[in-house]
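Re: the 259-residue chain
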Amino acid sequence: MSPSLAAYRMRNEDAPLDLVKASPEWQPVIGLIDGWARQPLGPRSGFSSDELDAFARKHGLRFPPPLREWWRLAGRHPLVAADTRDYNSCFLGPENCVDFSRRDFLMIALDDFQNETGNGILTNFLSHPDPEIFGINTTIRPGDAPRLDWYQGKFIGTGLRVPTLALHSLMFYLFDRRPLLRDSVVCLELEDKRLGNVVPDARMIADLGLTLFANPTSIGDIYSDGADVIYHWMFGFACRNEDAADRIRRLVATRRRDW
């Protein structure tokens, strides 16, 4: 994080949007949207500071600086502003985040609409300049998954912050947003189903130069080269263009999959 952006966060002030866009924290998120989405980020992709202030007053909440940065950058972008009636997994914006929140938890990204599983910020931490992201999963308890980092017996520590949650969730959501992606994007699935188990084949991941983007609340991990390839064991490969797809085909047997 740049020192100047950190200073704005410590003062609970909105930093100039150009400063936010230049931040190393937000650059991967911006690169993913601009590189994959049919519509790149633009002046109308986000909410204004005044609009966020109005929503905060309406809900009686204080939105922490990184969350405001996210909504100012991309809160209205088609990849981000999905309707919960259309998608099982989606981001929540300042206008509807309280619909799936509770007294002690502000939900900002839904992983499963049906059981209200997702990620957000504990209300006790909303005044923090850069709060940690916690997950909530209504289908499990600490006894079911003792290896997870449980907090107060009901929240799951992720180690993520708002920018890293946005990046991880965007990569996950891409597999369900084909109409919003560029025509050049290709989806592939493994021909050898044994390689697509819950635990991805380590050699395949290494050969493809993919890095793990982990979130303990998600079903299955996301792997990516950070630019052109995203892999999820359940959905297969999302490739930004045919060149990226050809790189996958040269290393592992795949076939094109309908989205």
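The chain is about 30% helix and 20% strand.
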